[in-house]
Amino acid sequence: MSHAAPPDLSTLYSAHHGWLQGWLRLKLGSGADAADVAHDTFLRLLQRQDRPRPQPVFREPRAYLTRIAQGLVIDHYRRRDVEHAYLQALAALPEPTAPSPETRLLIIDTLVRLDTALDALKPRARQAFLLAQLDGLTGPAIAAELNISLATVERDLASAWRACYRVYFS
Questions:
Q1: I want to staple 137 with a disulfide (CB 3.0 to 4.6 A). Which of 64, 84, 114, 131 is the partner?
Q2: pLDDT tens by residue, 74-128
């Protein structure tokens, strides 16, 4: 049995970009956001071209594109939520202390990367870190709150700090 050669990325783009952008427009409620995410979806495929991988994109192209796009939609909403929270906090500052637009963009990007890094932690480590950083609890207080040992709290906090440092130094 002979198999036809898989289509190249430009053929895939031509055949499915319009559909993907329409699907994203319904999901996101914005043509501009849909265009951005559709673009990023194909950009991800282009970046993966050099890596060996199975070819699910060519067997079920819409399912494969949808899967990539759904991850990017999650990233889009996460960034929007972080940006909104940051801008609310910024609005509470007096005007002379507000950072420049360029600095705001860098801060938002860093906050999104930190949020993603913390989201990748084990839930207990993330909770311990947030209790320490947001609520100001000490190690023994966190241990009591989470009903775990102080040594476990210290390991969890170290893990969270390593994740934050990787964001900062990458």
A1: 131
A2: 888 888 888 888 888 877 777 667 778 888 888 888 888 888 888 899 999 999 9
